């Protein structure tokens, strides 16, 4: 199972990016930003599963990433990939960390989002 720690560790090692906690009201929401332009390439949050259409009030960890529009439909059919929560649904998806099984899958999403937002 992938965790917040896994995400933060990967982003620090691969992109030399430290977490930014911009909202006092939401202390577990983490913005991951480019050092040069300050743009987000990922947003990690803890939300209740029902916000993704899952029949549960369990608090889950998710990561929003930007994806190429032409792949949106195919990506949303994959396990752990949902319509973006609280972001532009035409450009972003939400990844449910517990449902993703491979670190490589997660890192591909993060790296692609990093490239798309640079």
Describe the structure concisely for a colleague.
The protein is of the alpha+beta class. The chain has a single domain (10-116), classed as Aspartate Aminotransferase, domain 1.
Features:
five-stranded antiparallel beta sheet; 5 strands; Aspartate Aminotransferase, domain 1; alpha+beta; YjbR/MT2646/Rv2570-like; 118 residues
Word description of this protein:
Pfam families: YjbR. InterPro entries: YjbR, YjbR-like_sf, YjbR/MT2646/Rv2570-like. This protein has helices at about 5-15, 70-75, 105-115, and strands spanning about 30-35, 40-50, 60-65, 80-85, 90-95. The chain has one domain (about 10-115): Aspartate Aminotransferase, domain 1 (Alpha-Beta Complex), CATH 3.90.1150. The chain is built from three helices and five strands. The protein is globular and about 40 Å long. Helices cover about 25% and strands about 25% of the residues. The protein is of the alpha+beta class.
Based on Cα principal axes, name the global outline: globular
The structure class reads: alpha+beta
Radius of gyration: 13 Å
Distance between the termini: 29 Å
CATH architecture annotation name: Alpha-Beta Complex
Helix content: 25-40%
Number of strands: 5
InterPro entries: YjbR, YjbR-like_sf, YjbR/MT2646/Rv2570-like
Topology:
Elements: H1 4-15, E1 30-33, E2 40-48, E3 59-66, H2 72-75, E4 81-83, E5 92-96, H3 103-116
Antiparallel strand pairs: 1-2, 2-3, 3-5, 4-5
Helix pairs in contact: 1-3
